[in-house]
Design goal:
Layout (H helix, E strand, L loop, with lengths): L6 E5 L4 E5 L36 H12 L6 E5 L9 H11 L3 E6 L4 H11 L3 E5 L5 H8 L4 H11 L6 E7 L6 H14 L3 E5 L9 H7 L7 H7 E9 L4 E8 L4 E7 L9 H4 L16 E3 L4 E2 L10 E2 L1 H5 L3 H16 L2
Parallel strand pairs: 1-8, 2-3, 2-11, 3-4, 4-5, 5-6, 6-7, 7-10
Antiparallel strand pairs: 8-9, 9-10, 12-13
Helix pairs in contact: 1-2, 1-11, 2-3
The chain binds iron/sulfur cluster (2 copies).
One iron/sulfur cluster binds next to loops.
Length: 339
């Protein structure tokens, strides 16, 4: 695939950390028109019982500081269930900037965004990503079970006028009425507001109702003709351990759209852990798909479907033992990367 491709990068894993800071969300994202949830509950499902002493902002900052230079990491993504429900969110983001991270991003459902924009702007946050899985009130409410579409859309528009370097909107594609029309209106709004779009396929996990998953699954690849006719593929980032590729498209009207491809789970280039894994036939993400992901219990969780490949760093972080933490993490990544 090469239609005027400008950048093609391949690395073993995405050199970023992802900090999942809490286990709470005010939404219950579900299949449209049903009460069956599809949310993967990042950081909850793979978590331990709540830890004592509690995990603090300083713990996350210690970890981020300890790994940044030795592992060559420049980006940090802050997520959660909903990070704006985490009381330490502003201290965490400003602390990450002070440590020296070049890009700090945060992903939110946007419900509490409007009233927190001033504080977020002051933290030095670089990239703000807001999830909107539909672009009309009814479908948005049918998925989130919250009447928040207008408020979230207005907050995103306001955010584009602030000092953030980038504002992005994430959308997991689901079968809503008039999906094509909804996407076209979404794209028009995004280009008018200089928002970058990220489209995801819904990833299966064992908690999901299989029929609902099948009935609602939509691939962004259905848009391939539209994307090629109206723009070009500008870049591809490949992460070989995960078998993940991130495509960046640019439409002729200037809209940038990111899409993800996961694959090659059983190929020779995959980690031996994946090649021997009994869940590989169901697995759509790979190991370390989003870099080093640390959940709210300070456990590194590199796989969406398996907890037995996690690495618990709670004690080393609490003891502020940076040297042992780096050594353990380095051995762990070597083991995961082993083919
Ligand atoms: S907003 Fe995000 S974390 Fe909250 S329920 Fe929806 S998908 Fe899950
Ligand atoms: S479930 Fe986890 S270990 Fe198994 S193939 Fe997928 S990423 Fe690899």
């Amino acid at each position: 695939m090469n239609d005027g491709l400008e950048v093609k990068k391949e690395v073993s894993w995405s050199k970023q950390i992802r900090l999942l800071v809490n286990k709470k969300c005010n939404y219950n994202c579900s299949f449209p028109g049903s009460c069956r949830e599809w949310c993967h509950k990042d950081g909850v499902r793979t978590g331990k019982m709540d830890r004592i002493p509690k995990v603090t902002v300083e713990d996350f900052l210690f970890f981020a500081d300890a790994v940044r230079i030795p592992f060559g990491i420049e980006k940090v993504k802050v997520g959660a269930m909903e990070p704006l429900l985490y009381p330490g969110i502003f201290d965490l983001i400003s602390g990450l900037k002070k440590i020296g991270y070049k890009e700090v991003s945060m992903t939110t459902n946007g419900y509490f965004l409007q009233k927190n924009l001033d504080k977020l702007e002051k933290t030095g946050l670089d990239t703000l990503t807001v999830s909107m899985h539909a672009f009309n009130k009814e479908a948005y409410r049918s998925i989130t079970r919250i009447d928040g579409f207008d408020m979230v859309k207005n907050a995103v528009e306001e955010a584009t006028k602030r000092k953030f370097t980038k504002v992005k909107v994430n959308r997991v594609l689901l079968k809503v009425d008039d999906l094509w029309g909804d996407l076209m209106r979404f794209f028009d709004w995004a280009v008018a507001n200089k928002v970058r779009v990220k489209l995801y396929k819904l990833i299966w996990s064992p908690e999901m109702d299989s029929k609902k998953y099948f009935d609602n699954y939509v691939s962004w690849k259905g848009l391939m003709v539209f994307l090629r006719k109206n723009g070009k593929l500008k870049g591809i980032d490949s992460f070989t351990i995960a078998g993940r590729q991130r495509f960046l498209w640019e439409l002729n009207n200037g809209l940038e759209i990111e899409t993800d491809v996961f694959g090659h789970k059983l190929g020779e280039e995959m980690s031996s852990i994946c090649r021997k894994c009994s869940l590989a036939q169901y697995c759509q993400e790979g190991l370390l798909s989003y870099g080093i992901e640390v959940n709210p219990d300070l456990v590194v969780s590199p796989c969406l479907l398996r907890d037995d490949v996690n690495l618990d760093l709670y004690s080393l972080i609490k003891e502020r033992d940076g040297e042992r933490l780096r050594s353990k993490l380095s051995q762990y990544i070597d083991k995961i990367a082993n083919r």
